[in-house]
Amino acid sequence: MTIKAQTNSVVTGTGGSGQAIDRRSMVSGLVLVCGDSPVATSIAGMTVEGTEWRFETTDDLCRNSDGIDQTISMAPTNRLIVALCRGEHSKSEFLSRSRKAGIETFGTQIVEIPAATDSDANKAASVTTVRGAIARSEAFGSADAGNIKTAFSGAGGKISRRALFTIPPIEYRSVPTINRSACIAGSGCTQCEKSCPHSAIKNVAGTVQVDTSACKSCGLCVAACPQRAVEFPSFSPVEIESQVEAVLSESDGSSKNIAFACSKSENMPIDDWQIVPVACAAMVPAAALLSTVSAGARSVGILRCVEECSQQSSREISGRIDYAKNVLERAGVNSNRIVNLAPSILGTENRSPAVSEPPGVGSHSVEIFGRTAASNSVLALNEMSPNGIEAFTHAYSPIGVPVVSSTACTMCGTCSAVCPSGALTQTTSENVVELTLDAAKCIACSECVESCPESANGAIELDLRTDISALTVGPVRINSDQAIACANCNTQFTSQLTLNRLEVLLGEDYSHDLYGTLCPECRTLA
Amino acid sequence: MSDNTASMADLAALRQMSYSLMSAVFFGDLRETADLISDTASEVLAVSDWAADMSFYPDLAEFLRAFGELDSESYSEVESQYQRLFGPTPSSASSSVPLNETSYLVPGAEETGWVLASVERHYSSAGIESTPASGNVPDHIAVELEFIAFLCGREAEAWAGDDFKEARRMQDRQRRFLDQHLSKWIPIFVREVTGREDTGPFELAAKAVQVQVIHDLDFLRSLQPLMRSAV
Ligand code: SF4
Ligand code: SF4
Ligand SMILES: [Zn+2]
Ligand SMILES: [Zn+2]
Ligand SMILES: [Zn+2]
């Protein structure tokens, strides 16, 4: 078969200034600053240690994105930070421009700096903002083709055929892919699937599949994954954590207020908030609030957008905030440090709360995502509190304690097999089966309860309890039984309790010779 | 909002060229496609003002630059790289990377014959006749890529001729073929190539194919509702 190669081109150049970037000789990144901002000179005077970042100031940059290709071509890179005067620019125009100049998709961050006031505090805070953006940029790996989804702006309404002869304005959104070496879908984990409000991600026979056409790029799956296996470039765990750490580590003479803000928000909170963009406010777990406070923030807020952070997720968000406030209160920390910011509507002020300065902390490292994030942040706050955190239960607790009834549990091993976090494990040795709980690993997902064949008899329940002693005691044996070995191959294949239960269930049909002597494999061979 | 002045016709033509060049590279007749590649490479790079707004552009540009830079001397080296990677191998050497779709079928999931028949159906329903004489199997990467290039060319003509319906039909054909065939096996193929040593510019070419295929499928899917409801 041959198909004639058609290379007679009808492509016509627009005489463009677009640059083809030679990726071999690049600087780490470039920061473009609007020279009209009173803080521009402070930012341009920054030094970055270890990596090569260049700073360029351009007058009237906010209203004139044309020149940025030129600047980028002088110092090729694929990481860009554009610092623009608050409220005086078109974000999508700069994103499109920077792609045209060769910056890779998601390689550009736009940060807002003050347009008018010129206080020293403002200058220092803006340097901190850029420092955070640089850290986030350096933590950004690179987006695979599978992580990039095309969206057409204005795709909501009807469009005319005539208009479609021109390519509609494009916006790229991040969609998840799975790091297969970290994912434990093979052992039954479905946390991402359960979290997705759009049924876009599924565990299909032990492999997670993402339906990118159904995905709405909310990042809820990222927050749900105990393994940090969901890759979501531009809003990945490591990018978000790196930014928060960098902001908290910068000693600019002021205390830090961190706002996790939906990137679709029209209006970012002003005043003294440092903005950490997230794909949706619902992707911010309680650990983000607790960890940020324990790492030295004065206050932490969550900002929802009006359109997309839906009603359902706003209840979820309020629940998490309430939980986090409960932890703070019990730790003796003013719970007003955590704020549910008013959804971003133009003109909403969202000032940071009037709370005292935070105590000095040793480490600014934060852990927001993954199975140990919640327990570690609770433990860190416990360390800081004068009397320790008293145990309490809460409907939105991200950690829990599975409670097993030694009379109803048959030691069948189902719960430990499905537990995605490794909190429950079952081992067999020396004729003994043991079920062990390490509560510090529990993510309160209740997979164990849902999978337990004896749950109707109360064999296992999940106590949504935050309990320091359970978190610190280490692995504890919560049930044990005699192991039964196969008469043929000697594999220990079941427990005495399971056989007892089988006998009750089967009554007269129970046969010890059949169920209690040979393992299932040898049984089929026999 | 981005100021995107490019027409759908330009985009279809750019994609046509991209697929044609990738196809030429994987046909393996590198010397003959040499001039073609270096000529067209500069042409594609020259339209970069609007094209660079597309997420596939950086990989396409890098692939073109790699081949555009080759001179007559380096061609023989690249040719032997091609042979080592994709050519028939002596029994002693490690096996080469297959260039056809049916080599990448999941065992037991699909039948080779069924896949070949499906590929052929796509070709014939687009009005292309099989000419087995050329020695190329229908599921060869170069043939599949050239098929998409052909559809892109028809789409570009339709736009240029003010024929909205025909343009939409050509997009539908591309979307279905990308969905059912190229997007299914190209990622595995690319993993195979990247896993080898001394891949020369072929790793960039393979990567560019993958990025183009995934981008286009996604782009056409996102565009479909707009095309369908346009008034
Ligand atoms: S990003 Fe949101 S919509 Fe997409 S798969 Fe994850 S949870 Fe679902
Ligand atoms: S939640 Fe994470 S580990 Fe679990 S199946 Fe999904 S991607 Fe895999
Ligand atoms: Zn400005
Ligand atoms: Zn939102
Ligand atoms: Zn046995």
Automatic annotation (TrEMBL), chain A:
Its cofactor is [4Fe-4S] cluster. Keywords: 4Fe-4S, Iron, Iron-sulfur, Metal-binding, Oxidoreductase. The keyword 4Fe-4S applies. Transmembrane segments: none annotated. It holds the Pfam family FlpD. GO terms for molecular function: 4 iron, 4 sulfur cluster binding; metal ion binding; oxidoreductase activity. The keyword Lipid biosynthesis does not apply. Residues 174-202, 206-235, 400-429, 433-465 form the 4Fe-4S ferredoxin-type domain. SUPFAM superfamilies: 4Fe-4S ferredoxins. InterPro entries: 4Fe4S_Fe-S-bd, 4Fe4S_Fe_S_CS, MvhD/FlpD, PSI_iron-sulfur_center. PANTHER family: PHOTOSYSTEM I IRON-SULFUR CENTER, PHOTOSYSTEM I IRON-SULFUR CENTER-RELATED. This is 4Fe-4S dicluster domain-containing protein. It comes from Candidatus Lucifugimonas marina.
From TrEMBL, chain B:
Transmembrane segments: none annotated. Pfam families: Nitrate_red_del. The keyword Chaperone applies. Keywords: Chaperone. InterPro entries: DMSO/NO3_reduct_chaperone (IPR020945), TorD-like_sf (IPR036411), TorD/DmsD_chaperones (IPR050289). It comes from the Bacteria. Coiled coil: none annotated. This is Molecular chaperone TorD family protein.
